[in-house]
């Protein structure tokens, strides 16, 4: 990837070094980090979808045009794992969060993890979290106990839990299980308790992103004039199923609720961007817009077809294929990060060390860090990203090794059959015949041709990368991953 | 598609009406039409591939940026059918060309067809053809007998025939079949004979696009200063298998011969565009760059994996799925066609009536025409394209009906199995259980969910569109399609 990308990125580099040295920041930049939920590589206009898919996304597209759009942005294959990677700068398996948290599972973010919010706090930032958390509901795990000054409402779990109530009623479930229906909660100061706001049910599911956007706009308006910079993290809920949207978005797309939901995500994002502009702090604010993982194509509900698309890639939320872990990502910092498109590899773990470097904060030195500081690349001080590989875990199992354009799998993913065909998080993970599967993602974007025969040499870097990881685990053993299937 | 696309295209419209009326052309525009061979929707940078796929395409990308890029450009599902549709403005089935011509098949372009070149001749244009023809080798079918003043070398058949010689030698085929090895030929004046130039073998396959580009550059330089406008048609051979490229392109991509070949196609296209610019006629020349059909992913040769990609769509060359008939297309006319991107539906049949209107030529009135004049849309005089549907044929069988975003199939396409898995032109076409399959291409780009149940209403427009077509056939019966399988 390096060689041919060089010229492309080098132009960027030349343009930026001048820009970088000419500017001086009066104070540390604000950072607004927006995380979409299950938005696929093939769902947004800037990535070749949008209008073509019947759901225009003009605000996200404009952000992409004004910022650096990442076409090789890699994540972990599920909501909890990816958020853990983003929040800790480490593979989720190191914090015991390599499986999606469901009611009843034991995985939860531990106090001893150093979070992105704590990194910002170490430099005096004001911090706030709004929206979906999904990193555990234990007291030590809650946002206001993990570096955020406030959690201006949100919820612990996952949006499909809004379906539980109706399903329990329809199927006449015993009343004792109703306590598992999720709540909207908030915490108004660091270290304080969470207070219930209302049920997170199908009715309120329609309005949650409207309220996240409103809270974000209020926050921006309140703190725009302050000398203290802020770090604002928005955990959007869209387009995670179920996808009923606010009334003003009903029927806006041509593909039903999924498209309406993507368009609402786009519209709410636009509201936040407009607030930054109107408050006059657009130039002083780094805006990062990411998705947490690939799309859902497989429907697990009786009423909804999930119309997400991973674009050219195979795979979806929950498996270890490219479509599950390669999704959209963009970063805008006017005057500092040159607008453009890059195919250099960046992972979601990289944001913690990268942002730490930008604001002059330290990162933990007493534990393995998997994120890599990419600030020199983003600021145009070097032509290439510092990343060439990524490991992917599901539970306590290493399921994929990415090295440059090579995808190598110690396991084999497939859709179920014999029942209604389903893939992704409803699919299957089986053993190979004893060799890793090897695919070239550039040559074969849908991972249909195992080219291990002429690429047996890749077993050497494959084992080397695994070995380097295993060495860190020997010194710092992972907690046990949540277990739902191995008894 | 209309409703939501409206605002997007309307901005274009406003911008252009002013532009259109303010300009006057001193003479008719030159037209350079370049047709790539089996280039997929997911193969080019402007369509989200290029560098991401390990094969940058900067020249085609720049042309796309300077012109109007079509994201819903529809063709026919094979080289011969698509070229027949382009050349006649009619479904290929009307000229008996709805199957790919192979040595031994009887289909050939008839003298009574009115070709695109004849349309240009009717307005006094100088016309030339260079490269792959694939519309039949009978005398009446040859370019210089179908409206082109010259055929500055090319070949009748298809590029995989360059493999015949080696395969015949390896497999010890009887010598009598060697006459079927293809030739490079040329015809230097209208109505004249074709003269052999050399064998079209694997050695020369590497150089054919270099020579097409050189011939085109010479042609442009020779005629740039003339008062007579020209119509130049380039039938590129790339990235049709086999894909060995000219030496200077060896190893240029990161994905092997397919990528090298795409990059050579891009480089050769750049040579032609540079010649237009250097000759000072860029502003007086309409440049159209199209692919004839979807990519090949399935390899029919022992030595080559075909790394084409249809991007988000399912299907490949030879089947009737979206990936087979939706491919890349762009048109540049400086000062007349506003640069941009449109998802309005345009088919390859539309170019004949559209270009005829632009140059003030008549189109045939004594036969059914399937192409639709799109000049008002392209020139910004109306916000929408005039097309909402397209029928797709293979041989004498109607295999697909497109109506707006709906894909409806009277047959069912699948890959073979039990042998090495193959799809596309090596795949299978079977009967449905008696109902058409129905897919929503916006909601479900990979056509994985037959949504006929809630869309049974579509049977009405489906039968209506088929009925309208059948009525034209009653008055103007189709010739018999070539037959290779039904005996």
TrEMBL record, chains A, B:
<keyword id="KW-0732">Signal</keyword>
<keyword id="KW-0479">Metal-binding</keyword>
<feature type="domain" description="Sulfatase N-terminal">
    <location>
        <begin position="29"/>
        <end position="360"/>
    </location>
</feature>
<keyword id="KW-0378">Hydrolase</keyword>
<dbReference type="Pfam" id="PF00884">
    <property type="entry name" value="Sulfatase"/>
</dbReference>
<feature type="signal peptide">
    <location>
        <begin position="1"/>
        <end position="24"/>
    </location>
</feature>
<comment type="similarity">
    <text>Belongs to the sulfatase family.</text>
</comment>
<dbReference type="GO" id="GO:0046872">
    <property type="term" value="F:metal ion binding"/>
</dbReference>
<dbReference type="InterPro" id="IPR000917">
    <property type="entry name" value="Sulfatase_N"/>
</dbReference>
<dbReference type="InterPro" id="IPR017850">
    <property type="entry name" value="Alkaline_phosphatase_core_sf"/>
</dbReference>
<dbReference type="InterPro" id="IPR050738">
    <property type="entry name" value="Sulfatase"/>
</dbReference>
<protein>
    <submittedName>
        <fullName>Arylsulfatase</fullName>
        <ecNumber>3.1.6.1</ecNumber>
    </submittedName>
</protein>
<dbReference type="GO" id="GO:0004065">
    <property type="term" value="F:arylsulfatase activity"/>
</dbReference>
<keyword id="KW-0106">Calcium</keyword>
